[in-house]
Specification:
single chain, globular, disordered N terminus, mainly alpha
Length: about 425
């Protein structure tokens, strides 16, 4: 076995990576905008804190939509194939993102503006819900024995690339435009740019073929009539444990990005360009953690890698108040780097672990539903709840929240079987 994928596999891994990078870009463009401009643009004038909370509430809508998208796209992905489903998810996500960039503001259209924003945010979540599971399956179901976690990191690497791309877009605009121009129209450019990126993603994905494991499963028996019903009845334990295992991963990411960006540019007084630069530096540590943990997960197993990362994340919760709350640039950047390194370490093995919890016939649905249900628990309300916790009792409560999320995931991983040696 060679370390480098063969040409056919490389094409599949590139398609897996490119698609998730575009989808994550779309998702993070909104996340960044929610922390910077969505509140004043789409909600009535008032206290800045109230507008920020309203923006974070719209941020949560996509996480409610994601399990619905997971069930919908998982159903067709398990019945008709991975390729067509992934093309559809990319289109829905991309169209929703571009249309957000075209919306009128509250000042121009009144309550139509936030209502349309919520609808399109729901569309983003619907498309994203079907994306990750299919991309992970493309990689994992084409992996040679003993290399599933390594192949599974390719869709995971789309996350830091999409995040950096989104943040760099906003950073460039913040440096190029004055505050009035950025607020008036500049923020729309990253949303509109998604149209070109989706075109690239479609070009790559339309050249794909179905995975051999899916073709084999279809040859052996008819597909499940309702894959969602199957995972909820025959694979309930795997669904619950897989969902809870992802909670800390989501929590540490969105506390270190969306919440930290809003907190840093308001309560701590950092300028928008400075804090966006902090985020871009820190996400490089996430990009480092993903391949390191993926390689370790193939060598030592999924559970040991995740358990060490979850203990580290619990400790990170204790550091959140003293570091992020200090307002000192070096300490704030240090926390962001540690937080996103922890996220990368936890995220890397998930590309293999969640698909391995389910048989091929319901794997698209199972992996997608667990991944996106975890988003509701660990991510949807994280920025909003963290902002509330700061107002109720200070930044230290946000650290306790992060430690609690890590403890929940640690218990789930401790209860699940090791999947590294199982067949896919």
């Amino acid at each position: 076995m060679t370390d480098l994928p063969q040409p056919g596999a490389r094409r599949i891994l590139v398609a897996s990576f490119v698609g998730t990078a575009i989808e994550f870009y779309d998702f993070y463009v909104y996340a960044t905008a929610a922390a910077l401009v969505i509140g004043p643009s789409f909600f009535p004038a008032g206290e800045p804190g109230v507008q920020l909370l309203s923006a974070f509430a719209t941020f949560a809508i996509a996480f409610v939509a994601r399990p619905i998208g997971a069930a919908l796209f998982g159903h067709f992905g398990d019945r008709i194939g991975r390729k067509a489903t992934l093309v559809a998810s990319l289109l829905i996500m991309g169209i929703s993102t571009v249309l957000i960039g075209c919306l009128p503001t509250y000042a121009q259209a009144g309550w139509f503006a936030p209502a349309a924003l919520c609808l399109l945010r729901f569309g983003q979540g619907l498309g994203f819900g079907g994306e990750w599971g299919g991309a992970a399956l493309l990689a994992v179901e084409n992996a040679p024995p003993g290399r599933r976690a390594w192949y599974g990191i390719f869709p995971q690497l789309g996350a830091p690339v999409g995040f950096v791309s989104a943040n760099l877009a906003f950073l460039t605009l913040s440096l190029s435009l004055d505050a009035e121009s950025f607020q008036a129209w500049g923020w729309r450019i990253p949303f509109l740019a998604s149209a070109a990126l989706v075109g690239v993603g479609l070009y790559v994905r339309l050249k794909l073929t179905e995975t051999p494991l899916f073709r084999q499963a279809l040859a052996q028996a008819e597909p499940e009539r309702v894959p969602l019903a199957t995972i909820l009845t025959r694979h309930r334990r795997a669904t619950i444990l897989g969902t809870l295992a992802m909670v800390a991963c989501y929590a540490v990411f969105y506390l270190s990005t969306v919440f930290a960006l809003g907190f840093g540019t308001t309560s701590l007084g950092f300028s928008r360009p400075v804090f966006l630069m902090f985020e871009c530096v820190a996400v490089c540590f996430m990009g480092l953690g993903i391949p390191l943990s993926g390689a370790a997960a193939d060598r030592f197993g999924r559970r040991p890698v995740l358990i060490t990362g979850l203990f580290a994340t619990m400790g990170l919760g204790l550091l959140l108040g003293p570091m992020l709350g200090s307002g000192e640039g070096t300490l704030v950047l240090g926390f962001l780097c540690l937080g996103l390194l922890a996220m990368g370490w936890l995220f890397g093995p998930m590309g293999a672990l969640l698909p391995e919890l389910f048989p091929t016939r319901v794997r698209y649905t199972g992996a997608s539903v667990t991944y996106n249900l975890a988003g509701i628990i660990g991510a949807s309300g994280a920025p909003y709840l963290a902002q509330r916790l700061v107002e109720w009792g200070g930044i230290g409560l946000v650290g306790a929240y992060l430690a609690a999320a890590a403890a929940i995931s640690l218990l789930a991983v401790a209860l699940m079987p090791e999947t590294a040696d199982t067949g896919v």
